[in-house]
Amino acid sequence: MTPDATEQRVLEAIRQRRELVNEALESDVPMAEPERLYEASRYLLKAGGKRLRPTVSLLTAEALADVEPMSEDYRAFPTLAGGSIDVMTAAASIEVIQSFTLIHDDIMDDDDLRRGVPAVHKEYDTETAILAGDTLYAKAFELLTQTGADPANGLEAVRRLATTCIRICEGQALDIEFEHRNGVLPDEYLNMIELKTAVLYGTAAAIPAVLMGADDDVVEALYQYGIESGSAFQIQDDVLDLTVPSEKLGKQRGSDLVENKETIILLHARQQGVDVENLVEAKTADELSEAEVQAAVDELDDAGSIDYAREMAEDLTEQAKARLDVLPDNESRDLLCDIADYLITRGY
Amino acid sequence: MTPDATEQRVLEAIRQRRELVNEALESDVPMAEPERLYEASRYLLKAGGKRLRPTVSLLTAEALADVEPMSEDYRAFPTLAGGSIDVMTAAASIEVIQSFTLIHDDIMDDDDLRRGVPAVHKEYDTETAILAGDTLYAKAFELLTQTGADPANGLEAVRRLATTCIRICEGQALDIEFEHRNGVLPDEYLNMIELKTAVLYGTAAAIPAVLMGADDDVVEALYQYGIESGSAFQIQDDVLDLTVPSEKLGKQRGSDLVENKETIILLHARQQGVDVENLVEAKTADELSEAEVQAAVDELDDAGSIDYAREMAEDLTEQAKARLDVLPDNESRDLLCDIADYLITRGY
């Protein structure tokens, strides 16, 4: 399958489920009093987003249950032991956690924009944004208790989500720490992106299996699928910033080079003796010339740093896809494979 | 029983359990990496505090199980259906939530001090304080999944804690809103303090009953006990600020009058036609004279506002104590009664 055909299939799978996910978020996180708090809590959820994580959750459920994609009601979805659960609410809870982390991250990083609209702390204020995040945080746990799953499975899902949230906080703390520290090692960086980003993909994939009563080895394989493809996604981001033409990227190619952003490419290059602090003279993305970027990319290429990152992303993706062997061979499993490929072929 | 004797009994009950609670917090929220994040997360927990909420949880468990106080291992505590649970971890999870809310509240209110030490966002920084609160938040849920309770009871406990956290956020949002709004009604104020403060007392009392498999009406009665005694506590705070001599209070009597703090007393007085904005001329607590405070207190007294608040606190306390009739008649139940009394007789 060509990258373009893969992307088409993935985007179609997402598109088919997105409206259902949006409806679920609307009804599972309804307006309430005080109005301003709930408006702020729902603001980012309503601003859109691909809904990639909930799509992964829904596809995992469909692959596990071995049913035709979109053939079952996600609100009364068959479990492996008979009976049914609301797998949509579980998928929504993952997106709600994602939304909470974005709101708090934007405060910490003082980012102005998110999903093309002002960040919550800009549209409202910092106090309201802290509280909106805190509200969503609890809401996600409340939702996850309401899937109708066997209580032992429900409790294990809650435990996994709680542990995941702790890991995300650890990842964000490391990300902040790395901005102020020289000599970050590639392994430390990989650990950081796993914690900050990949664990929530892993949990999105694993939680439906937990709720449906899958065996531990299936749950663990799905979790690793998410960890590995989520990590590959972050690494590929670094590659794309340097290698995709600016007009396709939608921003200046090589902007990571002027933003003092540590990437796996630069960390590798530093280990190879490249003077990464002086790869470009420009101080802002606006000052960057295409020629300057190309010279820097050539130097990183010579050091093997771009290949190092690209191969790492590809290896992780292959590992992620192999994890899916625990699932029945069906269309939803193929789509989960496609998503892993898409995460390192998309990006502009 | 005289107020002094009640206070002695309550403080002794707290003292006996505090060391065990502190040990549980130390082992249930251990140091981990990244170090700075975990130091910040543990900073306020280690700064002390009465541990009133965990004490309420432990006493509720003992009263329900009808065992001698301190006679059973809290880590292997008998449930009503046989078997045992770790009720200490449940008690710790309540204190961890309390700690998270204080850390985030102090950021929102930009308070410098907490429990006699710098607030977390002052000792560290705002980013770290947001993350420390977020880490504790998830930690509390993780802990509550690990009590060894029947999974259905464990899941219901998680649901209750999640809903409680949502309510606390709503209460804090209302508190912030009320600072910028005139004409807050007493009922709105009572709703706010119930959400912001009392629901966590209610949950501290109810969760052991949930985990131990008590009937719904027992759980609900214990929840209401906490709601009512927690609300009485907040209301009595307003009374004490005006009526306890400064030397006993440890700060200038009447400081609420200059801080534009809406209290149930001032809200009532405004409804009675008192010009509450001009009760005192002083703009800071330092400028307040004892004579000026006394004149203001006399005016509020004439309007019936102080009695209104005092009677409300007393009525709530009597209601709270009556809720405990669902429990077996034993020493722990008596101590829960004493705590309700103590909450409106202590305070300086």
Automatic annotation (TrEMBL), chains A, B:
EC number(s): the record gives 2.5.1.81
The record, for InterPro entries, names: Isoprenoid_synthase_dom_sf, Polyprenyl_synt, Polyprenyl_synt_CS
Which top EC class is given?
transferase
GO molecular-function terms, A-Z: geranylfarnesyl diphosphate synthase activity; metal ion binding
Required co-factor(s) are: Mg(2+)
Q: Which Pfam families match?
A: polyprenyl_synt
List each coiled-coil range: none
UniProt entry keywords in alphabetical sequence = Magnesium, Metal-binding, Transferase
Give the family from UniProt. Belongs to the FPP/GGPP synthase family.
Its protein name is Geranylfarnesyl diphosphate synthase
Source organism (scientific name): Haloferax namakaokahaiae
